[in-house]
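Renewal narrative, Specific Aim 1. Our central claim is that a sequence can be written position by position from structural information alone. The example that follows is taken directly from our test logs and has not been curated for this report. It begins with the structure tokens describing the chain, in the order in which they were read.
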């Protein structure tokens, strides 16, 4: 950790002194997240003991096999969700300008999204959001999704609402992009192909951050097709692929990389050899790693065994990493801004602004 403390201090200095901010285009999802707690024991009408780990929850469900079971659920709150809005909101708080096109309300942007969209330069919604029921545990989270309208997101539905000329103008006016939640948007491959065609005709080489969002339920052919599309996009833009460890293993499988890995740094190296994008970025609960032309890196995160909120933590990591990248930091420093951003979030149940992120890093480095 001694060596990493020096890296944190260097990151603080470089991030604090950087005046670089980005215009970031984000698309195309949007969800309302219900944060839930399953009840282990009910004390009285106000006090209960929640289940705090996934195995306890699984054992409770399993105990009902062949019989029946009742599990009480307590809703703590509802909040703005979706990979795009959560990541974009964090990027905005860290000083970047946001144009977002997403599913935040069919006829008008819903009130739950308004505090975020008011921070944006442009916010366009073309359909209703999906719903996520998120069970928060100390060792992870279980999310039940009701994607409904999100499943029908297509190039035609986006351009039909925004207009091709306006969308092309928005793309030309932004240097940075984030396209997220590939898994829940079945037609996302076609959307990425259409955007690649727009990039192909532009003089500026854009930067694109891609997040898949747990592709287990998608076919291996769809996932491999997506990787081929990203390789084609990378000819015309700088493509960064952000993955959690589970997603990285799935990408490694479809890319037929060298089997096995001793840590996520080696996993990022294995993927990069077969998928030479601008960078491969991987985050786990305790670490983050990246591999690019300049080399590979791994850092420890500010792990806490009792997170107050973990739903959205991956999106907040992505935003922290990308904010560092936009600020001109080195790849290992971007990993520090990424894990620090998510570290602040899981402790404080809200994303950090730029000064709060710097203060968190300063405290971590002590």
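The sequence written for that structure reads:
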């Amino acid at each position: 950790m001694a060596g990493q403390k020096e890296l944190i201090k260097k990151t603080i200095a470089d991030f604090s002194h950087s005046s670089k901010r980005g215009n970031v285009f984000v698309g195309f999802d949007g969800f309302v997240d219900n944060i839930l707690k399953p009840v282990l024991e009910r004390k009285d009408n106000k006090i209960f003991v929640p289940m705090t780990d996934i195995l306890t929850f699984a054992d409770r469900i399993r105990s009902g096999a062949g019989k029946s079971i009742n599990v009480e659920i307590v809703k703590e709150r509802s909040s703005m969700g979706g990979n795009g809005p959560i990541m974009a909101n964090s990027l905005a708080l860290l000083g970047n300008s946001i144009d977002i096109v997403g599913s935040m309300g069919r006829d008008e942007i819903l009130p739950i999204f308004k505090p975020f969209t008011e921070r944006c330069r442009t916010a366009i919604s073309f359909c209703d959001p999906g719903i996520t029921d998120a069970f928060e545990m100390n060792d992870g989270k279980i999310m039940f999704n009701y994607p409904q309208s999100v499943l029908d997101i297509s190039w035609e539905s986006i351009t039909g609402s925004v207009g091709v000329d306006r969308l092309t103008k928005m793309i030309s006016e932004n240097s940075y992009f984030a396209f997220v939640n590939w898994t829940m948007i079945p037609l996302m491959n076609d959307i990425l192909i259409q955007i690649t065609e727009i990039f192909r005709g532009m003089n500026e080489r854009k930067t694109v951050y891609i997040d898949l969002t747990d592709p287990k339920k998608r076919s291996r052919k769809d996932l491999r097709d997506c990787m081929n599309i990203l390789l084609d996009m990378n000819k015309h833009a700088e493509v960064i692929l952000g993955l959690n460890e589970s997603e990285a293993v799935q990408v490694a499988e479809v890319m037929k990389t060298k089997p096995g890995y001793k840590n996520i740094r080696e996993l990022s190296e294995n993927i990069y050899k077969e998928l030479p994008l601008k960078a491969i970025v991987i985050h786990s609960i305790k670490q983050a790693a990246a591999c690019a032309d300049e080399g590979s890196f791994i850092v420890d995160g500010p792990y806490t065994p009792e997170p107050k909120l973990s739903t959205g933590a991956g999106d907040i990591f992505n935003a922290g990493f990308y904010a560092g990248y936009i600020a001109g930091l080195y790849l290992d420093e971007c990993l520090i801004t990424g894990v620090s951003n998510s570290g602040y979030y899981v402790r404080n149940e809200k994303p950090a602004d730029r000064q709060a992120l710097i203060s968190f890093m300063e405290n971590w480095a002590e």
